């Protein structure tokens, strides 16, 4: 499973758990869902940051070749 797929799965499953917890009054399930959703969002941001770092690195490398 790719990181994108895992992050999306975490966000969707987390939101579902959160809604389920709210609907049933289960605070533990609600918080568990919020945490899983947040983990998916953090994974997305980390991937985005890694891409930006790679782009900057590639630009510097190309500039040094000139």
Note down, in words, how this protein is organized.
It contains two helices and no strands. With 66 residues, the chain is mostly helical. The chain has one domain. α1 runs antiparallel to α2. The termini are far apart.
Morphology? rod-shaped
Largest sheet: none
Derived structural class: mainly alpha
Query: Roughly what percent helix?
Result: over 70%
Strand percentage: under 5%
How many alpha or pi helices? 2
Q: What is the N-to-C order of secondary-structure elements (H for helix, E for strand)?
A: HH
> How many domains make up the 3D coordinates?
1
Rounded to the nearest angstrom, the radius of gyration is: 18 Å
Residue stretches low in confidence (pLDDT < 50, at least 5 long) are none
> Tally of extended strands?
0
Question: Which oligomerization state do the chains in this entry correspond to?
Answer: single chain
Q: How far from one another are the termini? A: 39 Å
Mean pLDDT, to the nearest integer, reads 95
List the helices and strands and how they pair.
Elements: H1 3-24, H2 27-65
Helix pairs in contact: 1-2
Provide tags for this entry.
66 residues, mainly alpha, rod-shaped
Could you give a quick summary of the protein structure above?
By secondary structure, this protein is mainly α. Helices cover 92% and strands 0% of the residues.
